[in-house]
Structure formats: structure tokens, C-alpha cells
Amino acid sequence: MRPMRIPMHRYEYTRLTRQQIGEKLRATEAGPTCASGFTNVLAGRTLKIVTKDGGPVLEYRFGTDRRLTLRENGRQVNVGYGELALNNIVFFSHMIPAEQKGYNVFIDQGTNLATVFEVWFSSGIKQNAGRPNEFTLDDREAQRQIWFGYVDTGKPAPENLHHYTNRICGKGLYWKQDTGIETLELYASVANTNFVELTRHADQLSWVAPSDYVLVDDRHFLYDRTECELSGIHTCFAADLYDLKQVGVRLGFNERDELEYYMFRGAGRVVGQLAYLEPFDEHGKVPMFAASAGGQPPAKGARVAYRPVRTFRKMTDEEVHEAAERRTVTFGVAGSEDVAPQVAMSGNNLPFSDILVGKTFTVRLDDGPVRDYRVSDKFRLQFRDRRDNVWHEVEYRCYEGDTNLAWFSHIIPGSRPRASVQVAVDFTNGLATSIESHMGTPYYGNETTYRALFGVVEMEGIEAPLYLRHHFTDELVGHAWSWTYSDQMTSMHLYTSPHSMSWTIFTANQTMGSQWCSPCIYVKLRPGVYLFCQCEEACNGAQMVELINTNISHDCGFSFNGGERGVTLGVVGAIGRHIGKFDIAHFYGPRKREDV
Amino acid sequence: MKGVDSNRPETADTGRRSFIWKMGAGMSAVVASATAVGSSAGADDAALRAALLEEEKELRRLHQQFQEAVDRGRYDEVVALFTADAEVRFNGGIFRGRGQGVSRFFREHLPSRKAGTSMPAAPGFELEAAQRLDQVEVAADRWSATAVFPYSIQAGMPLESQSSLASMARLHGEGVRTWWEGGHYRVRYVKDDAGRWKIARLEYDTRVRADWRVGRSYAVSIEVPRLSVPYPRDAQGPDALA
Hints:
Chain A is mainly beta. Chain A is built from 4 helices and 40 strands. Chain A has a 9-stranded antiparallel sheet, with no helix packed on it. Chain A has a 9-stranded antiparallel sheet with strand order 26-25-24-23-31-30-29-28-27. The radius of gyration of chain A is 27 Å and the shape is elongated. Chain A starts with 17 loop residues before the first helix and ends in a 15-residue tail after the last strand. With about 240 residues, chain B is of the alpha+beta class. In chain B, the strands form 2 sheets. In chain B, strands 3, 4, 5, 6, 7, 8, 9 and 10 form an 8-stranded mixed sheet that branches. The two termini of chain B are about 20 Å apart.
């Protein structure tokens, strides 16, 4: 099958109705499929599973024809099921006819402990209930509730059940299923996963999905993720970290609105481990959604899911430009308007540099603009683009990101759409790279577009090279850095692929929590010195472009964004900690495909 | 002292290691945990003194209940401890009425700022025993009382950032700049018609603030802005500005 070309965060998934979903789910009455054949551990057996904390009591009778009978709350249903065994764990999955719900059940036959993932569609769950930004979750988004319990054998109920865990946090695995599907899963948070569909998508971008991690024992864990705000598909499996095997199920509706309900086996490989920074006596047994509920028990299905598009008002190019004409703010200078300083994002910034003061130079970009600069002040410079040959005087901010390496930014006055440049000028090597940014994308006006142009700097005393250039790089791919912008704001960046990244927010005890992701680019300026640029696509549309100097564990750079309040060019900078690295760069790039 | 009303007679040196509260002359003789029972009433018979001591015990229990309910987020219980026309003064704001401002203060204002719950004093800012005012005065008619109790709480302020980082932090209850505050509760109590003590007025008399959270090895004195936007412009704001 051809890989999906439109990135998931840009794809307009159909708002399937409850009725449509009900019709599609009829196929689940026969049970899931499996490419490599089911196991038959449960055939002919009866089981009573008791769960705690208000969960269900499930009485099963398994036939020999891959059908089961479930008695729950006095009701009885007969339905097809699938079963796969992994060491002592037997996992079975089934739906309940006409109810748009089902169960994925994991039983540890050694301990008789059981964990039940209840799954359902058409939830009607409201977010921000009662507030102006209230919305209802899409019916196609699979919901889940995890119930911990045991198989009732007539003996006293066990005291210690399976439980949530942070032991998987920071681990990364490559999985290949019996379907041929390959996935990189980077478990960089206790509540989310970064996943890269190596075979299902053309661009090898990473995305984020809310997840749960359950510890069975030191060797086995249970996992789920739901592709919220994307297809809504649910993936759930048990994994053995000794032998790196998995058995699981995938349930939901793909981009073509087709039902996917199949079980799979998979084989994996550990690709690395990031440090997890919570206290050593914090074991992650309390799920994050419960910790955030202010003492109130979480609602059924609650999870930490960032849903930025739901509260984002898309603007047209015209609307954004009108706003920019009313108010364009450069580094907090906005004429008569008072602008709050961006302390939260720049409290730990590098100091501004006067490295450009007294210099006259030309940035000549290959097949791009040629700009002449005259600089006599630390915060204001003059430039002209030789295409219009008009000198402009503008506010700018500059850092010395490495020895004799200037990194500065300014607005392009009068530009439509409003544009800015972020320029790295290497006065030692005669090289220059400009990130050329402007408001607007093919999708909407209040989202930024950027591209990197490479070239040289011409100045008296510099011999600019003819062939040597800064260049795109994958040297950062797999690395994770925490960036502390101020004592109030730290985010971990995980450079997940050559064209994408994710960011993770820490909780108060430095457990890694909510996540989101975006495409990005990486440019190598010098050994250990890089440019990193991303736009929070299909999110808030804001751009961040940073010079990362790994030698001093610091970044410094600029933000560029626009909306109803105008367009803003600001500064951003942070001190960093290297959190670890996944060995994943070799997974990326063009490859031979047998399926195309 | 930074961040504290300089018009008050008491001042404090907020230096990190030499933190000493400087009391006015009228306060200098106060001994920690002293109770000036009935002194204003001139009580001289043993029965009245015993009754006043019982009232004092009751008020101390009430205060413990108040702090415990705040710490555990039992806001319904907290609000029920106040009179219908009670007021709370906090950081330049006045929250009036049990059903309105006081309820808003405890149910919305404090939780949105992760504020009000007990926490240890910031290192270098601990009060010496003689500086911890702790006193209860019960009127001779036993229908009203005043008290001063020390507090050591977390306070905070939501980050104003519209960034995705702040939005995501709010998903799990973060996105708030927190700090430590020390000071005294100044409380006025009255009895209701059923003879039960209620809080008629509660003032957070903040003496010092430090940028500190548990686990950090250092603390520095900070200033924070007083509340400046009243309700309803600020949906969680005070009814009036002090």
C-alpha cells in the first residue's frame, strides 16, 4: 500500500458520525484478524475477571470456535475474539455488538493478575465543559479506561495489582509487526509517545499520542496510545523487554475511514534511553491525569491530550496583514503600545552582542537575495536588499553564538506578508545562512513559513569560499535536550527525525508530561553549533529559530508569530541539559520499498 | 522590606541568612504562643478565666481546621467557616461575602495560583521562635475574638504566556509561577446565632516572600505585584482593592 503523503497533522479526517461508526463496527462481531495466526490458550476455558475502583466484573466462557460469551451486569453477549500469548501473558480482544465498545484484556497466568483496557467510540466527552471554549471529542477518537484486577480463583483477592509506571519513560523502541509495518516509538513522557511511522507515511515525521504505561513485572509492560486529534486510532500491546517481543491490537479508523481491527505480533529493538528526571523515589504509580485533577477523581477516559487546534482561530492572509499593519512588534518595541517582556521564554537567554557594531558587510545567499548591512549600533542597523536598492533602518538583536559567529534577526519593513530574517554570519569562515520567514502558509494566514538559504558573507578581510556552505544535518537526530528558558519554563526537545521534533513539558517534580510536535529543520554551522527552526504547525503557528551551541549547552534565538494582535518578532533563549540520545538516525532517508 | 507594605510599623530584614523581624516597641515583649486571655476584659474571676481558656482552645481548633481544609482543598468546608458578611484581605485585594468574594477567593483565586497551602519556610528565611506571633484574645463577653497566627504558605501567579508551552503546562496543573510566603494571619472571630465561632475577617499579613520551592538549595527575596484588577474584570479577582 502506498504510504500516506499528507502529514497527519494536516490531514482533514472525516468527522464520522455515531451511526457511521456503528455500521463500520459491525465487522468487529467476527473478532479481529491477525497476520500470523492466533494462539488458543483460552479455548474451552471459563474466567471471571474482577476489577477494582468501580471497574467491571467480566465472566467469560471461551469456545473452541474463536468465539466467547461474556456476562457483564446480568447481560450476556456472544462475539468473536482474538488471542495472542506472550510468555505468561495471554492477551485477548473483542468488541461488544451494537455498543461501540469492547475490551482488551491482559492476563498474567503466573499471578492471575489481569488488566483490562475498556475501549469505546462516540464518547460524547466534552472538554472545557461549561466554558466558552467547550467542545466535544470526535466520535472516531477511541477512548480508553484501564481497570486493574485479577482472575477470581476463589482465593482471597490479591493486594498488589498491575499498576501505572514511569519505568518505561525515556525508553525508545523500534518495532516491526507481522504486518510488515515498522514504527519507532519513543516513550519520552509518562503520558505520551512520540511515534514515527516508518512505513505508513512518506515523510517519516514524528507525531505525539497520549499513552499509558502499565508495569506487569520487571520484564513485561502494557502500553496503549491513541492518536488523538489525528485518526483517533488506538494501539495497545504487551511487550517483553527481555526478548523484545510484543503482542497487541490496533483498533480504529484510518485516513480512508476504513475500520482497522487486527491483532499483531512484533519484534523490536531498544534504540536508546533518555534520563528521566523525576525524584528517585517517584515511581509513577499515579497516572498524570489523576494528579492534575485537583483532588477530584478523574472522569472515565480522562487523559492528558493537547488539542491546540480546538481553540485556535485561523485567520486569512489579509486579516493577518491588516493586523501586522496595525502593530508589528520587534523585540518589545511597539511604538505607543506597552508590550509585556517575554521573560518566561528568555530569562536565561544569552546576552546580546555588539559583534556587528562597526561592520559593513554583504550577505550573499545562493540563488537568493543579496543584502548589504551597515551597523553602527548594538540594537539598530541599516540594510538594503539589492533587488529594491532601498536602505532601511531597523531594530535588530544579535548574539555571538560561537567565536566570531554573529546570529541576528530583524523585520523586513513594509513586507507583505510580513517577513523577518534570522541570519547566522560566520566571520571566521566567510559563511552565512539566513532563515527567511514570513507570515502565512498554504493552510492559513497566522502560521509562519520559513526556509533556509545558504551563502557567504563578503567583507573586507574575508575570503568567502566558493563551494563550502553551511548545510542541513541529521547530527542532532535522536538527541534530547531540556531547555530552561527561565526558572518558570522548561521544555524538553526531542529531535525525533531529520524533519521533525517534539517538545515535552515537565510537571512540578520534573516528571515529563504533555507533549506536542512539529516539523523542523536542522542546519550545521560548525562542529557542535547548529541552527534549529520549527513552526508549531496546526498548533499556534508560531516559529522558533534557535542557534544551539552544544559546547556551552545553551541556545539563543528568535520567535516570530502573528495573529489578531499583530506580528511579533521576539527573542528566546535557554540553558540546556543533554538528556540522552536515541540511536535512530539510520532509520531515516529514502529506502527501497517492496510495497510500492 | 521588598514586596511588603512599608507603612506598617513592623519591618523585616529579608537578607538571606540574617533574616530578623524587627517588631515595633509594642510587640517586642510578645512571647511565642502567649495568650492574652481576657486581659482586655479585666477578668478576675476563675470561672470566667476558665471559660475564656476554653474559647481560646476552640478558636485554635478552628484555625487548625481552617488550615487543614485549605491544605487539602476542602473548599466547601473552608468557606463554611466564615460569616455571611466576612471579608478576606490578600495581597492588596479585599474579597467580600461568604457566598461571593470569600468563596471566589478559596475556590478559584487560590487554586488557580497554586496558593494558600502550607509549606516549609524558605531556607534562610525561617522565623525565630520569638518572632512567630501566636496569640488569641477573647472578648470578655465571649462573643468576639481576635487572633494572630503565623503562616508559611506557597503562593503563585499564573504565567501570562500564550505560548504552547504554557498551555500544555496548564494541562497538568502547572503554568504557574510559585514562591514561598511567610507572615501572619490576622483574624477576627464572632459567634453566630447558634454560638459557633466563625471567621469574620481574615488578613494575610505577608511579611516576606522568597523565590523558593522544596528541593531547591537557595532562596532569594522577591517582589510580586499586588492584585490590581478587581472582579469581574478579573474573574478570580477581589471585590475591591485595599
